[in-house]
Amino acid sequence: MPPVVLLHVGGLAPTIRGLLGGLGIYEATWSATPAAARRPAPRDGLGRQRSAPGGYLSNCDIVRAADQVNWGKPAPKWGRSTHVDKPSDIRNAALKWAFLKNKNKTSGSTSAPRAGDDRLVLTSAQVEGPFYLSSPIRSDISEDRAGVPFHLLMEVINVETRQPVPNAIVDIWHCDASGIYSGYPEGSAHDFVESLKFTGVAGMLGEKHIDEVNEKRFLRGAQQTDADGLVVFQTIFPGWYEPRATHIHFKVIVNNVEHLTSQLYFDQDLCDEIYTTIEPYSQYGKDPYSVENDLALRNLKQIDGVLLTPNWRDDKTRLECSVRIGVR
């Protein structure tokens, strides 16, 4: 992975340094100032342009982006780390660039069988994520959230007996069209730095629970499977947020024992269609993340039975999908 320029921004810099260092990304310190005011960078004996001591500028995209911003401040002395007040667009660009350069170890992912299919796979377990809260028992979880209506039927099957699992609790939760989870602050879903400030690195990677800040519970719900192992949820198609691929979280609990925690993902073409043509999703554009670069999946070599391809109803008023969940 090539070097990345890291902007030092207040007390957040050590956290970002640790994140990028953990990803194996080289760090250089560079002071963002207008091109006309910035002093030429000194060069070493090989003619390479240096940033702060020890670093070499190699990601011209971020440098050029910074040159387009007028910070309204005199140029700092070269080699001094600078704290700037509001470089949010460049900070986010730098972090986003680093995350998008990630390539997961995942060698493959497989589609989820539909309910009633002959095909049956053991659904891969995944991290719970930072935003789990116990859900109310209900089928319609959409509440007042705007978005494309989504009818999701889930079938829970024991992969060893190949029989339905009755009386299992299926608990699902996901973000709204703006990338917001109920119970948590609004406004940071598409701001990488603010998200990182709130969740920390472990939370952003789905490895730490974050306490809720309000009592809202939209787009959360749980139900008990019937004799055929089925539950149905009425929700909306989820939006996306930094730095995750579009997904829905779920748990399967049998006899008060958690048998599976996982996440479901979506066909990229469908996501692109919704995120570029339908409000309020189109305010944020395409999701640049996928199972290939989503860091929450970085340690999984294979994820099975998690990719969904919902279908539009004939009148295109809602999406419909069924999924067979395999558990032990």
Number of strands: 13
The CATH top-level class label of the largest domain: Mainly Beta
Shape: globular
Rg calculated over all Cα atoms = 23 Å
Domains, number: 2
Determine the CATH topology of the largest domain. Answer: Protocatechuate 3,4-Dioxygenase, subunit A
Instruction: Summarize the amount of helix as a percent range.
Output: 10-25%
Question: What order do the helices and strands come in, and which of them pair?
Answer:
Layout: E1 4-6, H1 13-22, E2 27-29, H2 60-67, H3 88-100, E3 108-111, E4 149-158, E5 163-164, E6 169-173, H4 192-204, E7 220-224, E8 230-236, E9 247-254, E10 257-266, H5 268-277, E11 302-308, E12 311-312, E13 319-327
Describe the structure.
The chain is of the alpha/beta class and 328 residues long. It folds into two domains: 4-100, no CATH class; 108-327, Aromatic compound dioxygenase (Protocatechuate 3,4-Dioxygenase, subunit A, Sandwich). It contains five helices and 13 strands. The protein has helices spanning 13-22, 60-67, 88-100, 192-204, 268-277; strands at residues 4-6, 27-29, 108-111, 149-158, 163-164, 169-173, 220-224, 230-236, 247-254, 257-266, 302-308, 311-312, 319-327. The strands form three sheets. Strands 3-11-10-9-6-7 form a six-stranded mixed sheet. Strand 4 (149-158) and strand 5 (163-164) form a beta hairpin. It starts with a strand and ends with a strand. Residues 1-16 and 22-86 have low confidence and may be disordered.
